[in-house]
Design a protein that fits this description.
The complex is a heterodimer of chains A (115) and B (111).
Chain A (H helix, E strand, L loop, with lengths): L3 E4 L2 E4 L4 E8 L5 E7 L6 E7 L2 E5 L6 E7 L2 E7 L7 E8 L10 E2 L3 E5 L1
Parallel strand pairs in A: 2-11
Antiparallel strand pairs in A: 1-3, 3-8, 4-5, 4-9, 5-6, 7-8, 9-10, 9-11
Chain B lengths: L3 E3 L4 E4 L4 E7 L7 E6 L6 E6 L3 E5 L2 E6 L4 E6 L8 E9 L4 E4 L3 E6 L1
Parallel strand pairs in B: 2-11
Antiparallel strand pairs in B: 1-3, 3-8, 4-5, 4-9, 6-7, 7-8, 9-10, 9-11
Classes of the chains: A mainly beta (115), B mainly beta (111).
Chain lengths: 115, 111
């Protein structure tokens, strides 16, 4: 089973709101990722957690705050977003293969609209 | 300079033919390569991974890797209309924990 779940599927929020995106996987993967994807563009990496520790932050603005409460859960806290932050937010997880490579499996995404 | 290059397409292929998708990358030390399929409005789906030079086959899909030429390709045999999607090439960097994606190739299979 390669299922990653994300909630909510859709989110509309104002620029002064605080909201959170949630991601969950039960595959025993120890790396989890947040990506942002704009229309007709590839996914753009935001954060990587490895063994529940933040290992990569791609210079993401502080209005995006990630959290990894345990090895199965990943949150993305949103505050004071801008309309240009409207996008599909994707969560992914992976586990090193015997060759040391990471096959990443994506969740269905949260479609975020900032008004 | 982009690290992963793909033709954006659209690539139009008749049903039943072979679709050929190509990708080049700039990081010579990369060791892991992936192809994702993304339907409109959906998330990327991993369809192939390849780590060694040569061909890797899975059903109608064949991935080809040539590290000397820094080239990865995906062949889809007996193309079906359901194969119409955007195909993303991804290369593992920074110890393969980070994926760098190409811009994607939009493929249309014409019945």
């Amino acid at each position: 089973d390669t299922e990653v779940t994300q909630t909510p599927k859709h989110l509309v929020m104002g620029m002064t709101n605080k909201k959170s995106l949630k991601c969950e996987q039960h595959m025993g993967h120890r790396a989890m990722y947040w990506y942002k994807q704009k229309a007709k563009k590839p996914p753009e990496l935001m954060f990587v957690y490895s063994y529940e520790k933040l290992s990569i932050n791609e210079s993401v603005p502080s209005r995006f705050s990630p959290e990894c409460p345990n090895s199965s859960l990943l949150n993305l806290h949103l505050h004071a977003l801008q309309p240009e932050d409207s996008a599909l937010y994707l969560c992914a997880s992976s586990h090193p293969t015997s060759g040391g490579s990471y096959e990443q499996y994506f969740g269905p995404g949260t479609r975020l609209t900032v008004t | 300079q982009k690290e992963v290059e793909q033709n954006s397409g659209p690539l139009s292929v008749p049903e039943g033919a072979i679709a050929s998708l190509n990708c080049t990358y700039s990081d010579r030390v990369s060791q892991s390569f992936f192809w994702y399929r993304q339907y409109s409005g959906k998330s990327p789906e991993l369809i192939m991974s390849i780590y060694s030079n040569g061909d890797k086959e899975d059903g109608r899909f064949t991935a080809q890797l040539n590290k000397a030429s820094q080239y990865v390709s995906l062949l889809i045999r007996d193309s079906q209309p359901s194969d119409s999607a955007t195909y993303l090439c991804a290369v593992g960097v920074q110890g393969a924990q980070k994926l760098v994606f190409g811009q994607g190739t939009r493929l249309t299979i014409n019945p």
